[in-house]
């Protein structure tokens, strides 16, 4: 990742080159840290062209490698965790009060808590709860992108709060989502964990980074739930020529198959495989494909797609909440 800093005097920018640079950065998928500081993975030819124009207008641009570090890691005083962000995925954890229970537990340990929605349904649910017109997250942003944006805010630890159909499916969701991030997955010193199905008998704290182990153990003990340390490598992709084949985990007959937020089909068996060719969905082995939705699917690779299954009952309930 690169850190890009820029500056230009107002009198040297009568034609709005700074605005064009900002637009070019956003189009390139960059993340804004502050007004004139951005984090970006790769610099495209189009962006380089705008940077040259910016410099020719009298502006200055500095680019350096960016390696995020936590305050406690670099401070001589070894500052302990102070602020924990809870990233709520979906409306269910809000409806079930899981975010409140987790917040109270963390506050009881002496932490400051920031609850942040990731996804439209979580944003709507939290807005209704607080009786405000809180700005809704952009539905076009992926969950992975929103997590990357969350970790650029002021925080000392990140907890993903999710309520999947099972702990196993929650682990798969977490692994897929974190693997698709650009910034979060490289922040190895950030305590990162996931609290899954809080309030249910099989609830668990899922540890996604070694730095999270101590806090995760405290949460597990306080809430009396189990602690699990899985592996991020959960997506086995088979390549056959121009085709990619990926198994759908935890498939049950009748389940809806969701890929990157689209309902692409349904499970006809418990052994289901998605087939993509040249970035297009072409078949679902062991399932029924929605041809209408299949035409809308475009993926660079199945390894970057987020795939999950949802029971028809859960799917109807979720739709009812969003109306």
Q: What do you see in this structure?
A:
Helices cover 31% and strands 28% of the residues. Residues 132-139 and 317-323 have low confidence and may be disordered. The chain folds into 3 domains: 2-65, Alpha-Beta Plaits, CATH 3.30.70; 71-228, Rossmann fold (3-Layer(aba) Sandwich); 237-322. The chain contains 11 helices and 18 strands. Helix 9 links the parallel strand 9 (204-207) and strand 10. It has helices at 17-27, 45-56, 71-74, 92-95, 98-108, 120-130, 143-151, 167-179, 213-223, 291-294, 312-322; strands at 2-7, 31-34, 37-40, 60-65, 83-89, 112-118, 157-162, 192-196, 204-207, 226-228, 237-240, 243-248, 256-259, 262-267, 272-277, 280-285, 287-289, 307-310. The protein is α+β, with helices and mostly antiparallel strands.
What is this entry, summarized?
Helices cover 31% and strands 28% of the residues.
Distance between the termini: 40 Å
**Which strand-content bin applies to the residues?**
25-35%
Instruction: Tell me the number of strands.
Output: 18
Oligomerization: single chain
Structural class: alpha+beta
**CATH secondary-structure class of the largest domain:** Alpha Beta
What is the 3D form? globular
Q: Helices and strands, in N-to-C order?
A: EHEEHEHEHHEHHEHEEHEEEEEEEEHEH
Biggest β-sheet: count, sense, barrel?
A: 6 strands, mixed
Arrangement of strands in the largest sheet: 6-5-7-8-9-10
Tell me the helix content: 25-40%
Unreliable stretches covering 5 or more consecutive residues:
132-139, 317-323
In round numbers, the mean pLDDT is 83
> Can you tell me the number of structural domains?
3
CATH architecture grouping of the largest domain: 3-Layer(aba) Sandwich
Number of distinct helices: 11
CATH T-level fold name of the largest domain: Rossmann fold
User: Rg, please?
Assistant: 21 Å
